[in-house]
Amino acid sequence: MSTLAKTSAPSxxxxxxxxxxxxxxxxVVLGVVLMLFDNLNLGWTVVGAWLGLLVWQPYHAIxxxxxxxxxxxVLRVISISLRPTSGLLSRSLDIIPPGAVLTSFSQIFNxxxxxxxxxxxxxxxxxxxxxxxxxxxxxxYAFSRWRFPGRRPALIFLLTxxxxxxxxxxxxxxxxxxxxGLTNNIAGLILAYVSTAVPFSIWILxxxxxxxPPDLEEAAMVDGCxxxxxFWRVILPLSTPALSIVFLFNFLAAWSEFLVAKVILQDxxxxxxxxxxxxxxxxxxxxxxxxxxGSVMVTIPVLLLFMWQSKYLISGLxxxxxxx
Amino acid sequence: MKYTKxxxxxxxxxxxxxxxxxxxxxxxxxxxxxxxxxQDGDDNNVVLAEQFxxxxxxxxxGSTLEIVQKETEVLRTDLLAAGLAGSGLPDMVLGPxxxxxxxxxxxxxxxxxxxxxxxxxxxxxxxxxxGGETWGxxxxxxxxxxxxxxxxxxxxxxxxxxxxxxxAKGITEANPEIQGFAYNLNEPFWFLPFVHxxxxxxxxxxxxxxxxxxxxxxxxxxVQNLKFTEEVVPQECDYACANDLFKEGSVxxxxxxxWAIGEYLNTEQSPALGEENLGLAPWPALPNGERPMPFxxxxxxxxxxxxxxxxxxxxxxxxxxxxxxxxAVEAYALGTSRLPAIAEVTVDAESNPILAASAxxxxxxxxxxxxxxxxxxxxxxxxxxxxVMSNSVTPEDAAAEAQIAAEDCLSAL
Amino acid sequence: xxxxxxxxxxxxNTLGLIIPLLIALVVVVLAFQFGFYQLLAKAxxxxxxxxxxxxxxxxxxxxxxxxxxxxxNVLLAFSDLKRNTFPCYSPVLxxxxxxxxxxxxxxxxxxxxxxxxxxxxxxGEISRDSEGxxxxxxxxxxxxxxxxxxxxxxxVWTAVNVIFHFVLGMALALIMNQKIRFKGLxxxxxxxxxxxxxxxxxxxxxxxxxAQYGFVNALISAFGGQPISWLDDPTAAFIAVIFVNIxxxxxxxxxxxxxxxxxxxxxxxxxxxxxxxSAVQRFRGxxxxxxxxxxxxxxxxxxxWTFNKADLIFIMTGGGPQESTNIxxxxxxxxxxxxxxxxxxxxxxxxxxxxxxxxxxxxxxxITTSGGLKEVYDR
Lengths: 324, 413, 379
Prior knowledge:
The complex is a heterotrimer of chains A (about 325), B (about 425) and C (about 375).
Chain A: H1 3-7, H2 16-37, H3 42-56, H4 58-81, H5 103-111, H6 114-145, H7 151-161, H8 170-179, H9 186-210, H10 215-222, H11 227-238, H12 240-256, H13 259-264, H14 273-280, H15 288-318
Helix pairs in contact in A: 2-3, 3-4, 4-15, 5-15, 6-9, 6-12, 6-14, 7-9, 9-12, 10-11, 12-15, 14-15
Chain B: H1 2-27, E1 33-38, H2 42-58, E2 64-69, H3 72-85, E3 92-96, H4 100-105, E4 129-130, E5 133-134, E6 137-138, E7 145-150, H5 161-174, E8 179-182, H6 188-197, H7 214-228, H8 239-247, E9 251-257, H9 261-265, H10 274-277, E10 278-281, E11 295-296, E12 299-302, H11 309-324, H12 326-336, H13 353-363, E13 366-367, H14 374-389, H15 395-412
Parallel strand pairs in B: 1-2, 1-3, 8-9, 11-13
Antiparallel strand pairs in B: 3-12, 4-5, 6-12, 7-9, 7-10
Chain C: E1 2-3, E2 6-7, H1 8-43, H2 49-77, H3 86-89, H4 107-118, E3 121-122, E4 125-126, H5 147-176, H6 183-190, H7 192-195, H8 198-208, H9 215-222, H10 234-262, H11 266-274, H12 279-307, H13 311-316, H14 328-336, H15 345-370, H16 374-378
Antiparallel strand pairs in C: 1-2, 3-4
Helix pairs in contact in C: 1-2, 2-15, 4-15, 5-10, 5-12, 10-12, 12-15, 14-15
């Protein structure tokens, strides 16, 4: 797929690479000239430079452009968190706002129960991720290695659970949680999260197990392992990418969930950060500075985790799909 | 005769003892742990907690109050959900009167007529009465919208909309960074006063909901004109936007309710305002000479149906004290920058000009009913008001559509 | 000792809940599994005792938190549960003397609930206009909030989103599959939208679409364009929410497709190139067919997720202005819980079941015609 680069240069006898470089320089110059004519509007230079890059190095130009779009909102939230006033509204597009201060960060620690919210969320999230992985790993193994009656309907049911509209379960869930006496109890929330995470996790893991040849377990069983030991010693270690992806997904989903948490956790002492931050931007008291500072602090860790795991993301998610 | 004297002495002693114990019994009760769901802002909840402590120290030492703050919509859904689930209802609910009708419909509240002396609240108790019974007692009178302005940008409050438009334009001309006027454009609560000013109302004389009379059309046309012909309001502005801009001095005049006064007096939260710069005034007069009339009510304490026994005694004792004891009412009103709801406590214009101005604006309002059908009006007007404010619906169509939507809504109740 | 709300007591409280929960889960689950296995293997003598046992914990979890609520939801659809009948369904509520609670669940209620999704119902009958045509029911308060309109809008929303996700994800993946520098950095940056908590994404973008203070209009004005009232204008608001959801969904496709591309054996391409196949031919002849096993499940899941995507729209626009950005699921949420709700939970349950059925049938048809999930079952 290197045609994109080739077709963009007509075959005039000139070296296409050189021609692209000339074109790039011309576009950059054009951008600067337009800027000089339009009240020193820096935007033209940026556009010119980018178009120049597009001609010279199209792949990088596109990827840089898309990367910027991807991370822009994160930069904006950081920017809001550094503002000296708590108001959200500012026409400034600077990422580091004029008079940047860290007061919002100290305020959210001192004036709100932010660390308590983080702790609650962390405790819930880790438990959900661990329990979810265990439940899904064993369940997926059954789907992958046996042809038992009910297997096909069960797999379809797992897919079907993804089709349930979010609003559909809220009323029943509230009543069930109240009946079981689990209101304000994080155990209730943990069980609810595990149940919602399991179907997708099983799908991912089953796909991955399918790519592992059954001969490996059979060899282990010949060596004296029973079936479960073979699973434990052979399959699980080989499935690290998929297991870490499932853990990551469960972690992310539980870390930022809001609707169900709002139904179950009403007492501020057990709030997760999503509930706490939501409270900061209520209709009548909007404290955007604190909200943004909190958002930065809850986003950065999962973001780093995610970026660090992004290489597993690719193998863990899709290895089950393609036979090569 | 000796015996008679002795008898009298005994009787008097007994009476005295009896009255002392009666007083003690009345004044001292066992500690209660109460939970209140409050729609009020955080600062006002702090005042409520302080007041509760005063009550607890004198009447029921060791009592505690857990205040759970909930937004209007959250309060409504959570109460309905807890009621349906049959557990988790609080001991008290503090909020505006608009949802009281809904909660009464859903069977969540208990009537308060036998528990409180209703005659004590002459101004606005009607806003908490549905079906001839009383479902809430007021902690204050108000919840009314008024004109608020920044005195450093506006010398005297405009008395007519013509004035206001001219003033707003002048301010923006002098400094393009400052918006002359802003308010919560798309919210019906901010729109209803215009309807009232043009002579309209939600219900006709027979009590039917009428949302398509000429007054409604005039009001839609007026607000559409403000935005698209006069261009004095921002292109897009909701509550948070108007509020934020006003607090930092980027907007000179806004329309907001008494609940925001405390926040605006606090210079930490509102650097551009404070007692120096915050001005309050009644709504400016419309071209027909009438002033728009805001809905008025107040914040009310309601009691869920599940509260009984010692909990109920505690609630009644605390709320009676909070809302009728003159010093308590005054402390709460001053602490929250709101107006008292009982006749015994009045606002002194000399010592508290801000509250006096708020009281003057309150006079221009009309009482808001607690009728649960009012909800249909709000819901039916909102999308049509949005249409008018994006210039995609004509005032006539908006009024007609709101009427149809309201009839649909009423028939579903 | 307390720091920002966190005290030793709070930590102990949480651990005191979680650790017993974990221990109880492990003990109960293992004991249950052991007993279940013995029962299956000894009493029923099934040879599939082990897989059933392995699946049992997941099945029980789903039974309590998925199937039971679903059944409950069906029961609700047979009820007349709305605000003023609440007291009939809960013992703690105050029951007015004139409230008739004799029938709690009945097929008549169900018929009424389900028909109300499509038609305007008056006194138990489908209402007709003066010319005798049936009148469609409004799910919200505007004339455009009828079921067909909402379904159409949901279809547009889903189709536009999925197409853009697919095309952009494919384009980025193809580029990323080239030999270029900084690949790891680009990949890490491009997956960022996937990792940011949804609430924060929606609120931030809502602010960027603000007519006066948002980045989008600032950019438009910088190049001499007219600012747009993104969130006050019905069409613009719909474009804005679609834009954000496209932004959200591209990384998933990029990752899936890139993974697929990397696992394709390069020899296929070399052979095709020797045969003189053009890039387009190679793409259509090799890349697409080999990616099929990945693409079909990815598109299936994406259609389902996009169709059901309520939170983004709900936070960005609340379904407004003029209820014009509502899709079926946000209309459901608005009808059941929104500011305009009449708390007609019976009706909302019926509505949710219909949404679910639509999606289910779509998925069944799509999966059987595409055949893409076949190997998931049969392998």
